[in-house]
Amino acid sequence: MPKRTKRRFRLREKIFFLSFLSGLAGGVSLLAVSFPPPARAVLGGLRPEVMAQARTLKMSLIRTDQRTGYTALTFQRSEQPTVPGRPPRTLTVREFLDSGGRSFAVAWNGSLHPDLSLLLGSLYRHLPPVIHSPDRHRLFFQDGRL
Fold this sequence. Notes:
Helices cover 32% and strands 25% of the residues.
């Protein structure tokens, strides 16, 4: 095979290889966009994550309070009772965001129980055992990881 033909053949191989690599990179990036990791808003999460979390919990935003240095978002969920004549069961969750839009505190009340593993994320496993009891109680939990 003449030297010139070998060069053309190598050039075609290189072009094919480069086009294959660019197609592969495009396919991988398309997969990454198609299957994003699940969004979980937790303490320390940003406002869009908090809003996505509310949708996951089937809650709607009912109030936004701008305060000096922070914003309080109030979400609510209501379920009709299964027994006629009983009032609806409700859950109200308040997420507190700092001036940068990061969640630094969460509070809830109502007859429905929130999914604390979703609200608190990795901090959930560090909670004292009393939080897992069905009884009503107050709890103040402060963690240096936040």
